[in-house]
Structure formats: structure tokens, C-alpha cells
Amino acid sequence: AITQMASPRVYANLPVYDPSKSSLAFGNRAIPKLNRELQSVELAVRQQALLLLCDVLHQKEKLAASLREGIASTLKSLLEDDDAVVRQRAAHALGIIAQHTLGRQIFLELHLIPALAKLVSYDNWYCTSHHTPSPLSHQ
How far is CA 116 from each of CA 4, 53, 65, 121, rounded to the nearest angstrom? Predict the structure, then answer.
């Protein structure tokens, strides 16, 4: 009797896995996971985590949890990242945080305004370019 060997099967309908895409954990693990990913050595992981964080910060209860987790300190350190996109997204996330009372208190405690002010230079124009220019700047 001839025995059949197992043959490899090709599954044509498998989803494509993109390792640069991060998924958000659920429940009380979501914010700690994001904080870890924000501190990753891999650039794509940091960038993706910043995108997810900006979405999360629009939910007031998630914003409070993020601040308790120390996200603001992590974002402050990302303002000095080597990557321009990371610095811009960190500044954007801090802008969302600053819109809330809890966030404004953290800004004062962590001295975030001077850290953000360092980004306002010609070399960092991308951090401020999404704002409407002052009418005085055209004179």
C-alpha cells in the first residue's frame, strides 16, 4: 500500500498581515499597551501607536486613564524623537490633552509648554503648519 504524504495547502483567502498595524487591546489593558508601544524602538510601532492614541484621547474616560498611565510623560519624551512624524503626532496628541481640564493640569505639572515651544522653529515647521497663518504674517 502506498501512503499519501501530506501536501501543503495554499489558502488564497487569508488576510494579509501588516506588522506595522497595531491593534488596540481591550479593557484596562489598552492604555498600558499603547504606552509600551509609544516607547518601542521600532519607528513604525511608535507611529501607529500615536495614531491610535489620538483616537483614544477623544474619549474623556480614556483620556483620564491615559493621564493616570503616564502617557503625557511619554509624549513629552517623544517631542525629542529623531523622527519628524513622531514629533508632530506627539504634539498633536498633547494638543488633544490640553483641551481638557485634567490635561491642562498635567501641562503645568510636567512643564509641557516649554517642551512644545522648542518645536516652534523653522526646522520644525511641520508641527505648526496645520494651523491657520496669522494675518500679520503676510505683510
Answer: 67, 18, 22, 11
CA distance 40 to 51: 14
In the numeric block, which cell numbers belong to residue 7? 501536501
Q: What is the DSSP string of 57-116?
A: TTSHHHHHHHHHHTHHHHHHHHTT-S-HHHHHHHHHHHHHHHTSHHHHHHHHHHTHHHHH
Handedness of CA 52, 53, 59, 64 (dihedral sign): positive
Dump pLDDT digits (tens) for 87-110: 999 999 999 999 998 899 999 999
Within 10 A of 39 (CB to CB), how many other CB atoms are there?
13
CA atoms 33, 69, 114, 51: torsion sign = positive
* pLDDT > 90: percent of the chain: 52
Are the C-beta atoms of 70 and 34 separated by less than 8 Å?
Answer: no
C-alpha cell at 135: 494675518
Cell of 5: 504524504
Question: pTM for the full model?
Answer: 0.71
